[in-house]
Amino acid sequence: MTPNTMKAMVLIGHGDVEKLEYKDVPTPSPAPGEVLVKVTATAKNNTDRKAREGLYPTKKGETTSFQMGGKPTLIFPRIQGADIAGRVVAVGTGVDPGRIGDRGLLDFNIYGHNRRDINLTPDYYGHGADGGYAEYVVVPSDQFHCVQNDELADAQLAAMGMCSYQTAMHMLTSAHVTAGERVLVTGASGGVGTALIQLCRIMGAIPFALSTSDKAAALTKLGAESVLDRSDMDSFVERVKAQTGGKPLDAVMDLVGGDMTDRFIDAMIFDMNARKTYPRLSIAGASGGNVSEILWTRIYLYQVQIFGVSHGTREEAEQLVEWIRGGQLKPVLHGAFRLSQLHQAERYFMNRGSNYLGKIVIVPDSQWDEHGKLWSLESSA
Predict the structure, then answer these.
(1) Any domain includes 315
(2) Looking at residue 291, what is its pLDDT?
(3) Same structural domain, 251 and 371
(4) Got the DSSP string for 310-347?
(5) Are residues 82 and 185 in the same domain?
(6) Confidence at 227, pLDDT banded by 50, 70, 90
(7) Rounded-to-integer distance, Cα 279 and Cα 182, Å
(8) Is 127 left (phi over 0), alpha (psi -120 to 50) or beta?
(9) d(Cα 302, Cα 270) in Å, to the nearest integer?
(10) Residue numbers of the domain that contains 45
(11) What is the mean pLDDT of residues 342-358?
């Protein structure tokens, strides 16, 4: 029996973690074409913090969240949390009742149309509609993909959520990365970075990770060809040459931005005669700074192709689910917090130390013993 009310962490406005309130709210009901999911784990993404703080401006001076569809969709109060794992407990009209009991993972996108190959006005659950920082959530039936793999715990399944993996895949497909190409992955220890390393290997590309020396062993084990220490960017190009046999990088998957962007371009253009394709820069983050100063002559004379990446497509989501079901993709789970401790989780994430690799998941308190306790980080916060 589904309760009339549920526990949820509710975002009441732009600001710091005090804008997140843990309270009782009505349990949603599935509309036609939807399923009601009992949430067992939801992966935390940096986009939660950035949306909360209003750090997705599309104009200078804005404190807002992105609104590529023409109007704001982050309306308060809002329940955040995009990468949701759980079980179907009820279905709306037009949905096969046989879906009840399915364990699955959400394709987090709110698509503006039915096309499968493009996503021009990206929005997502936890932003334009309520997400998984709650005990229950309603989502489209065709976007809640059944993943029954017994070897994957629910927390691990949530750690493979689409916000990171689909962004990573769209970075690679936008830049037309192919087998054998040398690809730099910046921000390699985070959710998108670890996804990029795995996806490069599936596609046959060769990933080089930019991170810190203490994470080199873990990233190499995950699939990185080598790990370049980001603490010494003055010698970056020379160190790239040493790792690639003197050959330029074919493409860069950039999650950093800021002053480093020019260095990444340097590593692709130092020997144009050795290239077989145009230099390509896919950008899906700006953790190192939202403004990069680049000479446009460097871009057009060296024919650097730049791809801005936000979300992905239905086709990409479906391919990722197949790789998860088939075991080609592996979870990189750092640890878990209870939903009621989301403030702690946010502070831990912002002040994470050198041992951080992969994803943090948030587990409803009512599901903690079964789905979160094994990976608890609460004593570390």
Answers:
(1) no
(2) 83
(3) no
(4) ----HHHHHHHHHHHHHT-S---EEEEEEGGGHHHHHH
(5) no
(6) very high
(7) 11
(8) alpha
(9) 10
(10) 5-160+331-380
(11) 88
